[in-house]
Amino acid sequence: MDGTRIDRWLWAARFFRTRSQAKAAVEGGHIRLNGARTKPAKEVKPGDTLTIRRGFAEYTVGVTDVADRRGNAQAAALLYEETRESVAKRETEATGRRLERMGLTSSGARPTKKDRRRLRDLQDATTLHDE
To answer: What is the pLDDT of residues 32-82, one digit of tens each?
Structure first.
């Protein structure tokens, strides 16, 4: 098999639950093939690079294999390889969002007494959680 439709591949690789969700994401511009916006019928081949935006997360993956059918999770994981930069960026952004939800934001200035108390409380909460 040389290539398959991008919406089918996204569904088979388990980035989306249904093919219609994958198609809507491609049409909405959330999927980029080799850096360019694409259409759902465009063929994806091994060696292509996809940028997939789902909510806050953005994945940059290299296509290693193509599939028309949806298999189990182990088979889906063999269809792509996520770049190291993508993984690091997602983890950094997730940590930032988690800290923002806790009320901790970095102003770039020296922390105030209130900020230091919040940091200490956060450290105490994480050490209790880890034990």
So the answer is: 999 899 999 999 999 999 999 988 889 999 999 998 889 899 999 999 999
Distance CA 104, CA 62 (A): 35
Number of domains in the chain: 1
Return the closest-CA partner of residue 4 out of 57, 61, 70: 70
Between vectors from CA 98 to CA 95 and to CA 99, what angle results, nearest 5°? 90
Structure tokens at 120: 């200490």
CATH of the domain at 104: 3.10.290.10
The answer to whether the beta carbons of residues 30 and 54 sit under 8 Å apart is yes
| DSSP bridge partners of 57 | 54
Q: Which domain holds residue 85?
A: 4-130
